[in-house]
From TrEMBL:
InterPro entries: Lipid_A_modif_metabolic_enz (IPR050177), NAD(P)-bd_dom_sf (IPR036291). This is NAD-dependent epimerase/dehydratase domain-containing protein. Residues 386-414 are annotated as: Disordered. It comes from Aplanochytrium stocchinoi. The lineage of its organism: Eukaryota, Sar, Stramenopiles, Bigyra, Labyrinthulomycetes. Residues 390-404 have a biased composition (Basic and acidic residues). Residues 405-414 have a biased composition (Basic residues). PANTHER family: BIFUNCTIONAL POLYMYXIN RESISTANCE PROTEIN ARNA, NAD(P)-BINDING DOMAIN-CONTAINING PROTEIN.
Amino acid sequence: MVSDNRILVIGGTGVSGVHLVNGLLERGKNVTIFHSGTHKPSKDFAPWYYEGRVKIVYGNAFKKKGIEDALGDLGYFDVVCSMYGNLRSISKFFSTGNRLGRFISIGGAPLYDMFGTANHEESVGGWSVTNLITESYRIQTDDGTLNGEPNSYNPKLNQMVLAEREVFRDHPTATHLRYPLMYGPYQLIPDEYMVVKRCLDKRPYILISQFLSRAPRSVCYGANGAEFVLKAIDNPEASKGEIFLVCDDDHPTNGQWIKIIANSLGHDLEVIEVPDELAAASRPLAKEDITKLNAYMMSNAKAQRLLGYTDPVPAIDAIAETARWLAKHPPNHELMKTMLQDPFEYETEDMIVEAYRKGDLKSAREIKWKTQPGYGYFYYGNNLNPADSRTQDEKHSGEYDPTKVRRIKQSSKL
């Protein structure tokens, strides 16, 4: 049995990381966390951060030198959990010098070929004919596997593929987990806010495209995401050398998700399903061009089978808890408008609904938004975002600065 008493968590202060540290402390582990210090968790969410129960190391996990300076003298760790930072540099650092026993990394599900650009023998119209996403689902490379060459339109997704590949080259017995969109208390940019805010404002309804309303949400609650990592640590033989797709056990539709949130707040919010051409208001929830959406669902069956995973918090309870927490701790509204790209333009929504209910689709189509709803600040897709004219190359140019929480473009004058 591999010893796993001394554990380093790179990150550890976010919506899932805090729950991971909680679980490790409950198991009696000696925990060190490494992060920039920009986002310190609140005392009620992570009391251990302020009680001296973990060693906290500050530094830049996005740069090779920052990693070396912060971690170079810390010695050996039985397990390293990399949730944050430049994964390729972190992986390479721990591949030399007898620095660790096991390497567990967290990446993202967006590297799957699910953005309508698929062009292979099992795709039709840009989409794979398989809508259930598992670990073996094609990723964005020329052969659909980690062995192929990255071929995404998005340089960020190409880097994600290369990072995963290098993890297993550096650490053949590593475990890698692909996270989807995460949610829960303390999520910095919560989708739930789009519904919670409307409930708090006593809106009578919310607009959503007919297709999107009935499409499933494959996402993961923060505590559930941490449970995948804990299960990988608890089951070293079953998890070594494996990739696991992370998501909640259950996948409510977007329409159900809206109702769960509204019900948890005691608000009667009507879900008005409208044709795609009238559903610009639901772009921030779709995170894509509504007319080009496809329904897919992720599966965590492999983690259930090999690791014995099951949700510690059922999805319905997790969504309701998140909504109630947001109602009590509302984030900065102007920041949410910018990041979610939801203008909360109720007057325009009302005009669209009035025309739609009269059957006047022509007038409804002609109604103009003062501020166009978008696909979200962190949109990964290849369509032009109505709220943001930047290309994916422009979005991902320069170096990420964790102290400013954004990319800094390199000046040509330097």
